[in-house]
Write a structure and sequence with these properties.
12% of the residues are buried. By secondary structure, this protein is an alpha+beta fold. It contains three helices and three strands, in the order H-E-H-E-E-H. It has a three-stranded antiparallel sheet with strand order 1-2-3, with no helix packed on it. It has a domain of 70 residues.
């Protein structure tokens, strides 16, 4: 019985270890209000332009007493009933600027 339990725990741990880490946004609150996500866009206008062309740039805003990440622009691929995969350039750009961060709190909506 104990061997089966240990086996189940080891299998679960190996499955969880193989899953890719999802990039997390900083909490949208009073301190981050008016800032962009990914954070690289706050200090580099060229990065902000590229991310906005892909429809991946978000801004921390407040409405109805709630802070929320909202998209600044929308890419034409995001329109319509069926969502299309982003272009290779946009996918590479998001992969570059959306590295997982361990020291940030969970995303706040």
């Amino acid at each position: 019985m104990v061997k089966r339990l240990i086996l189940c725990v080891l299998v679960a741990a190996s499955v969880l270890a193989e899953q890719p880490q999802v990039p997390r946004k900083a909490a949208c609150n009073a301190a981050t209000r008016g800032k962009f996500w990914p954070e690289a866009a706050n200090s580099d206008p060229q990065t902000a332009r590229k991310l906005s062309q892909c429809g991946s740039l978000e801004l921390c805003t407040v409405s109805n007493w709630r802070y929320k990440w909202r998209p600044v622009t929308v890419n034409v691929r995001q329109l319509g009933k069926e969502q299309h995969e982003p272009s290779a350039e946009c996918a590479a750009l998001m992969a570059e600027y959306s590295e997982p961060t361990a020291n940030l709190p969970k995303r706040g909506d």
